[in-house]
Write a structure and sequence with these properties.
Elements (H helix, E strand, L loop, with lengths): L16 H12 L5 H20 L9 H13 L4 H20 L26 H9 L7 H17 L3 H5 L1 E2 L4 H5 L3 E4 L4 E5 L5 E5 L2 H13 L24 H14 L8 H16 L2 H8 L4 H4 L1 H17 L7
Parallel strand pairs: 1-2
Antiparallel strand pairs: 2-3, 3-4
Helix pairs in contact: 1-2, 2-4, 5-6, 6-9, 6-11, 11-12, 11-14
GO molecular function: DNA binding; tyrosine-based site-specific recombinase activity
Keywords: Cell cycle, Cell division, Chromosome partition, Cytoplasm, DNA integration, DNA recombination, DNA-binding
Main location: cytoplasm
């Protein structure tokens, strides 16, 4: 069994023989990696200490005890993810004990770790987003410049997912719809895309994006011989449909050229679209429809971004918020 160092400040009781048997089982029969075995050992040592603290033998612990231990770890600063990993180790031990006939019920079975707070989506400030959208790379290849500018306008101006963007065709036809691809109706100023779950939605295309697309479509076929160009709206220099990875790389490069301190990726522009629209309109339901979210709770994360924006305005402008 792997030797695990014990902190000098912690008094550890003699190892439980059942834990030793389980760890031997995990090592020799399940063939767990040494690192995993070390973590299991530490987790079970922690469990033994907690059980000793409530004066209950390890195999007599009940679900109420486990919930209490979870609350103690959480209040002590342990993250939800960390607690989930610990519970996984404990659950494995009690599952083994049940198979050995040592316990009648697994006390960890129905215990879940506290939910970790979802990280806020990263969005650009309005000034940075507009700066990127209006950036004109002087001296760049006009073909590449027109394509990349149109890509930025659609991502930020329409809030498209990168998968929806690469799925757009230049000219819609029966094959376009059969394959679940989208297209742009410049005359109507609409983008028709197929999002998650093959759900189709229409998104308004603003005047700036329409102008950028017209400039791109005027140059798109220029370098290619007849029949050598893919049906895709956005293509690479060999005429094939542009990939999501290529868009990530081009967008990152373009944001650096525009002087932004934050490397920009496609989903950041989608977040920026949603956040800036919500700041201006306050219409959560409309933002949900434009983003193509099936559940409004997914869209509600942007209200947290909006609150952060309002809090910054308050801190900067309100007399009672200023620190002397």
């Amino acid at each position: 069994m792997v030797d695990v160092p014990t902190p000098q400040s912690t008094v550890v009781a003699a190892p439980d023989p059942h834990v030793q048997r389980y760890l031997a089982h995990a090592r020799f029969e399940k063939r767990l990696a040494a690192r995993t075995l070390t973590l299991y050992t530490l987790d079970l040592e922690r469990l033994a200490q907690l059980a000793a603290g409530v004066d209950v033998p390890l195999l007599q612990l009940q679900t109420a005890h486990i919930r209490r231990f979870v609350a103690q770890m959480h209040s002590g600063g342990r993250s939800g993810r960390g607690i989930a990993l610990i519970l996984s180790g404990w659950r494995g031990f009690f599952t083994w004990a049940g198979r050995q006939g040592l316990i009648a019920h697994n006390p960890v079975q129905d215990v879940r770790a506290p939910k970790a707070p979802k990280p806020l989506p990263k969005a650009l400030g309005v000034d940075d987003a507009v700066r990127l959208a209006e950036f004109d790379h002087a001296g760049a290849d006009p073909w590449l410049e027109a394509r990349d500018a149109a890509i930025v306008e659609l991502l930020y101006g329409c809030g498209l997912r990168v998968g929806e963007l690469v799925g757009l065709d230049a000219v819609p036809n029966a094959e376009t719809q059969r394959q679940g691809r989208g297209w742009i109706d410049l005359q109507a100023g609409e983008a028709h895309v197929f999002g998650k779950g093959s759900k189709r939605r229409s998104v308004p295309v603003g005047a700036a994006a329409v102008a950028a697309l017209q400039a791109w479509l005027g140059l798109r076929a220029t370098p290619f011989a007849a029949g050598a160009l893919d049906a895709a709206l956005f293509v690479g220099q060999r005429g094939a449909r542009f990939t999501a990875q290529s868009i990530w790389l081009r967008l990152r490069q373009r944001s650096q050229q525009a002087g932004l301190t934050t490397p920009v990726h496609p989903h950041m522009l989608r977040h920026s679209f949603a956040s800036h629209l919500l700041q201006s309109s306050g219409d959560l339901r409309a933002v949900q429809e434009l983003l193509g979210h099936a559940n409004i709770t997914t869209t509600q994360v942007y209200t947290r971004l909006d609150f952060q924006h309002l809090a910054k305005v308050y801190d900067a402008a309100h007399p009672r918020a200023r620190r002397k």
